[in-house]
Specification:
The complex is a heterodimer of chains A (439) and B (590). In chain A, 31% of the residues lie in helices and 24% in strands. Chain A is built from eleven helices and 22 strands. In chain A, strands 9, 14, 15, 16, 17, 18, 19, 20, 21 and 22 form a ten-stranded mixed sheet that branches. A seven-stranded antiparallel sheet of chain A has the order 1-7-4-5-6-3-2, with no helix packed on it. In chain A, strand 4 and strand 5 form a beta hairpin. The longest helix of chain A is centred in the last third of the chain and has 23 residues. Chain B is an alpha+beta fold. Chain B folds into four domains: 69 residues, Thrombin, subunit H; 74 residues, OB fold (Dihydrolipoamide Acetyltransferase, E2P), CATH 2.40.50; 231 residues, P-loop containing nucleotide triphosphate hydrolases (Rossmann fold, 3-Layer(aba) Sandwich), CATH 3.40.50.300; 136 residues, Bovine Mitochondrial F1-atpase, Atp Synthase Beta Chain, Chain D, domain 3 (Bovine Mitochondrial F1-ATPase, ATP Synthase Beta Chain, Chain D, domain3, Orthogonal Bundle), CATH 1.10.1140.10. In chain B, the strands form five sheets. In chain B, strands 8, 19, 20, 21, 22, 23, 24, 25, 26 and 27 form a ten-stranded mixed sheet that branches. In chain B, a hairpin with a 2-residue loop joins strand 12 and strand 13. Chain B is globular and about 90 Å long. Classes of the chains: A alpha/beta (439), B alpha+beta (590). At the A-B interface, strand 5, strand 11, helix 6, helix 7 and helix 8 of A face strand 1, strand 9, helix 3, helix 5 and helix 13 of B. Strand 11 of chain A pairs antiparallel with strand 9 of chain B, so a sheet runs across the interface.
Chain lengths: 439, 590
């Protein structure tokens, strides 16, 4: 219990909903942290002396006589190098039973970086997965989610990306994470021997759902400390943002707000953006790269959560099960990395953009041929070649279990083009055809 | 002035109790350690609702409030170009910290800077609001010093400063109103952003093409000088890339980019690229004619609305100097969402999708501020406006897209399907339209400045596209063998138009910008091929023939216009075309 002697205690709560409670209090500041019995809460509206609190721990068991104490400041996190190698709950309290962290106390909803103080993100972040490096190249300072159905191995792929990317710190924000997945992350990092550069903020599915609302801000505050104060390359993993948004909807609903699309609060875009926009490349070299997970409902990306996310993030990665090769692939059509233009053909080989596009365009032709086949039409020679190509392409480049260098990916690409197509069919500038097309 | 105190806070909506008169849209200042700006959005007796342009953290009940007596205003004068403003016209480069803390604000102009003034008006001249007194050099343009636009009536010039260097607040002229009162004109004036800035004599009907360098726009769906257009598209279809490419290649004298609720990294890209890029029109650095206003998605939501109005007002100001201004706003949906958040907090009855019911009229009023105008001295100035829209779920049947479609004259629909198959720009050539094609003003202009019958040719080209796509659908339904060979030929002709004209690589130094002369040439060339009659054995032959043809046209687009390699591709291409005479002969035999 964080009661401090000099704070006034209130014991008359007037209204209780599942997520909020209302009481009369004076000299309260908007956004400040309060404690309702032992549960953390935050001021989300004040009207004269009527104060509405959002209770992170849920209001089960809160009575009209529960004790309420205001702390006078918004939720905060103590930051220092001691964070490294530790796991915390949504309030920044250690989960591992060891001592609490000492350090500078920072408000967790930090200010925005002045856009003119940002640097253009143009450092390649290689993962060895061709579906990412070749088609959707990542850059430090980028923010990108996996859009995946719940049955896809997104956490596994994300852990793989985290381990292969060269980051100084990996910060894990887990929202509604199943306890099994939490242990999976912990064990994976432990067996890779990188536990000392991990910081975890974990809300498992057993914890109160509203506590999730604090996780991204906690994780971002820690990330900003390492990226800006310590000038480190930070990789921030957030899983699962859909569960975060669900918690937002609960609070909005209990506040009697008029819901917009899909019962989500009208401010969903701004709420998500305030988290994702923490991704940044600083001029001094420090950076925050955000890789997140947004789970979908049967691949529906028009739902308000993935839809708003897509407008905020710099691309998205789709995982898909390819039945032709029996493996999970990174879908080349719907996946996108917006910042790849800053590095492909510049930091990578000059033929990268054209080869990438040619491969995808031909894969699209193959999908048309597949439709034709499914509809029972005869396939012409070109269709057949496309189909053979598609299988090779999926197996050698799109599958998530691939781990090769970008040059190898490009060489493989040329090989596939030459095996299945004629020069005039690939739509590549002569300049490159003359250089890479083997006679 | 009226004073008050804060009695309620719900996110960035403040309730204030006042002791005197308050005006709708008046700016008031809240004491939270620093003075924070808020705008009055509702008045009820002595209770005022105001939207705070900052985060409300740390606002305490009882905080002191001061009313300013004016609406949200911008400061207009030399030194606006090349600046990077936030949504309230604070100069971002003058802020010192890495982070923008609550209440940080800076001056929009530099009052100490010296500008070289040259007079235009003389003693005893009659002037009105917007009349040019003289000009100063601002980067490479002549920044006109005008009689403040807010002044009413006629004035007589008493004296004008002599040529020389002056600071912004120096008196550049004194004038006398009809009552004999003398007034001073400096280089700076203020204007409330939500009121259209006039200062011209009349608005004209657009009819002169505004070149963007994009073939699918300039040739197929042309935008006019002083015209309006909008680009809706699901995420990932290339709205921002397209808008930025238009920014880089358009023929504007002044370029204003409003990044409204979008990604900070996109603005950073402009910051880092524009100072290096050469403007194809003026030959100077691109950032010299550019103003950027950014309220990125993590900056205060309430300033989203302000940012688009600040951009429009600056555009109108340069229009009064006789310039061709291009205003880009990305994205107007974020502005509409900001309006929705506020309306919701005020517990107003919602319209469709919880947007405020007056959204359509708000959007219509805003788009209507664009236009080509005749100034008092007979010169022309224009504001061309292109807004992007981020429709929820990629569905164009939503309030922002629908409201915009009623006012904007050009529609550039971005299609997910084209984006998926990497056919960029992903503008759907048939769903998109330009209402200007049917303007007699444009027909007249294009007949004399592009070529006779241009509008008919555009329509012809569109028709080939339409027929081609219909054929494609038939082929997909019935199968390759079951349709007449003609269907294959029409389909491949539309593919030729797609690859040769519509698709354009905005990362290729040559292909990224095509001027209208080259577009005219390519249109004629491709139409020539389309009007040809072909004879083929089977559909395999059609495909091979056109694939080859397309590859050559594609390579042509990557070479300099009329260069040796351009002509070589063209000659090779013409050789591969069948001899017309031969075809007709064969046909008459069979």
């Amino acid at each position: 219990m964080k009661t401090r002697a000099f704070h006034k205690t209130y014991t008359r709560i007037e209204q209780i909903t599942k997520a909020t409670c209302v009481l009369r209090a004076t000299s309260v500041k908007y956004g400040e942290l309060a404690w309702v019995n032992d549960r953390p809460a935050q001021v989300i509206s004040i009207m004269e002396d009527r104060v509405t609190l959002q209770v992170f721990g849920g209001t089960e068991g809160v009575s009209t006589q529960s004790q309420v104490v205001f702390t006078g400041r918004p939720p905060s996190l103590k930051v220092s190098d001691l964070l490294a190698g530790r796991f915390f709950n949504a309030l920044g309290q250690p989960l591992d039973g060891y001592s609490v962290i000492t350090g500078e106390e920072r408000v967790i909803k930090g200010a925005a970086v002045n856009p003119v103080k940002r640097a253009k993100p143009n450092t390649l972040l290689a993962t060895g997965i061709a579906g990412i490096d070749l088609n959707n190249t990542l850059v430090t300072g980028q923010k990108i989610p996996f859009f995946a159905d719940p049955d896809q191995p997104y956490n596994e792929v994300m852990a793989e990306v985290a381990l292969r990317a060269e980051a100084d710190k990996i910060i894990l924000g887990g929202m509604g994470l199943s306890h099994d997945d939490f242990l999976f992350f912990k064990n994976t990092f432990e067996s890779a021997g990188v536990l000392d550069k991990i910081v975890g903020f974990i809300n498992t599915s057993e914890d109160p759902p509203l506590q999730r609302l604090l996780i991204p801000d906690m994780a971002c505050t820690a990330a900003e400390y390492f990226a800006n104060d310590k000038k480190e390359k930070v990789l921030l993993l957030l899983t699962d943002m859909t569960l975060y948004a669900d918690a937002l909807a609960i609070v909005a609903n209990k506040m009697d707000q008029i819901p917009s699309k899909d019962s989500m609060p009208g401010s969903l875009y701004s709420d998500l953006a305030s988290i994702y926009e923490k991704a940044v490349q600083f001029e001094h070299g420090g950076s925050i790269t955000i890789v997140a997970v947004t789970t979908l409902n049967e691949g529906d990306i028009t739902h308000a959560i993935p839809d708003n996310t897509g407008y905020i993030t710099e691309g998205q990665l789709y995982l898909k099960h390819d039945s032709d090769i029996g493996k999970v692939i990174v879908d080349p059509f719907r996946s996108l990395s917006r910042l790849k233009q800053n590095v492909i053909g510049i930091k990578t080989r000059a033929d990268h953009p054209l080869v990438m596009n040619a491969l995808i365009r031909l894969y699209a032709d193959a999908m048309n041929a597949k439709t034709k086949k499914e509809n029972g039409f005869d396939l012409n020679d070109y269709d057949l070649r496309c189909l053979a190509y598609a299988k090779d392409y999926a197996l050698k480049l799109l599958a998530v279990d691939i781990n090769i260098s970008i040059d190898q990916m490009l060489d493989t690409g040329w090989e596939l083009l030459q095996t299945h197509f004629k020069k005039y069919e690939v739509g590549i500038k002569d300049e490159f055809l003359n250089q890479y097309w083997k006679k | 002035m009226t004073k008050g105190k804060v009695i309620g806070v719900i996110s960035n909506l403040l309730m204030i109790e006042v002791d005197g008169p308050a005006t709708q849209n008046e700016i008031c200042l809240i004491n939270a350690g620093k003075w924070l700006k808020a705008e009055v959005i509702r008045v009820r007796n002595n209770r005022v609702s105001a939207q705070l342009f900052e985060s409300s953290y740390s606002i305490q009940i009882g905080a002191e409030v001061q009313f300013t007596g004016h609406m949200l205003e911008v400061e207009l004068g030399p030194g606006v170009l090349s600046r990077k403003y936030d949504g309230l016209q604070s100069d971002l480069e003058r802020m010192t910290g890495t982070f923008i803390e609550i209440g940080d604000s800076t001056d929009p102009l530099d009052y100490e800077e010296l500008y070289m003034f040259s007079p235009l008006a003389k003693k005893s001249d009659h002037v009105t609001a917007g009349s040019w007194i003289g000009y100063v050099k601002e980067n490479n343009i002549d920044h006109k010093i005008m009689v403040p636009i807010s002044w009413k009536g006629r004035y007589k010039v008493v004296s004008v400063a002599t040529a020389g260097s002056y600071r912004l607040k120096d008196v550049m002229a004194t004038v006398e109103d009809e009552g004999g009162k003398t007034l001073e004109v400096t280089m700076v004036q203020r204007w409330p952003v939500k009121v259209p800035l006039t200062g011209y004599s009349q608005k004209l009907r657009p009819g002169k093409i505004f070149q963007t360098g994009f073939r699918v726009i300039d040739t197929l769906n042309p935008l006019m000088e002083g015209g309006t257009g909008y680009i809706p598209g699901p995420f990932g279809t290339g709205k921002t890339v397209l808008q930025q490419a238009i920014a880089k290649n358009s023929e504007a004298d002044i370029l204003i980019v409003v990044a409204c609720g979008e990604r900070a990294n996109e603005v950073v890209e402009i910051f880092s690229e524009f100072p290096k890029l050469i403007d194809p029109v003026t030959g100077h650095k691109l950032d010299e004619k550019t103003i950027i206003i950014c309220n990125t998605s993590n900056m205060p939501v309430a300033a989203r609305e302000a940012s688009v109005y600040v951009g429009m007002t600056l555009a109108e100001y340069y229009r009064c100097m006789g310039y061709k201004v291009l205003l880009l706003a990305d994205s107007t949906s974020r502005w509409a969402q900001a309006l929705r958040e506020m309306s919701n907090r005020m517990e107003e009855l919602p319209g469709q999708d919880a947007f405020p019911v007056d959204l359509p009229s708000t959007i219509a009023n805003f788009y209507s501020r664009a236009g080509i105008v005749k100034l008092g001295n007979g010169q022309l100035g224009s504001v061309t406006f292109i807004g992007t829209i981020s429709p929820a779920g990629g569905n164009f049947k939503e309030p922002v897209t629908e409201s915009t479609s009623k006012v904007a004259r050009c529609f550039y629909a971005l299609s997910q399907k084209r984006a998926d198959s990497k056919r960029y720009p992903a503008i759907d050539p048939l769903a998109s339209y330009s209402k200007y094609i049917d303007y007699p003003e444009f027909a007249q202009y294009s007949d004399t400045h592009i070529q006779k019958g241009w509008v008919q040719q555009i329509k012809l080209l569109k028709n080939y596209l339409r027929v081609g796509l219909e054929s494609r659908d038939q082929i997909l339904i019935l199968g390759d063998d079951a349709v007449p060979l003609d269907y294959h030929v029409s389909f491949w002709k539309s593919e030729l138009i797609d690859f040769g004209i519509i698709q354009q690589n905005s990362y290729d130094p040559i292909d990224m910008r095509t001027d209208i002369e080259r577009q005219r040439y390519m249109l004629n060339f491709i139409l020539e091929i389309c009007t040809m009659e072909f004879k083929f054995k089977d559909f395999e032959e059609v495909r091979t023939f056109f694939k080859n043809l397309i590859n050559r046209v594609f390579q042509m687009n990557f070479t300099d216009f009329q260069s040796e390699s351009f002509r070589k591709y063209e000659e090779g291409l013409r050789e591969s075309l069948p001899d017309k005479a031969e075809i007709y002969e064969n046909q008459s035999i069979s």
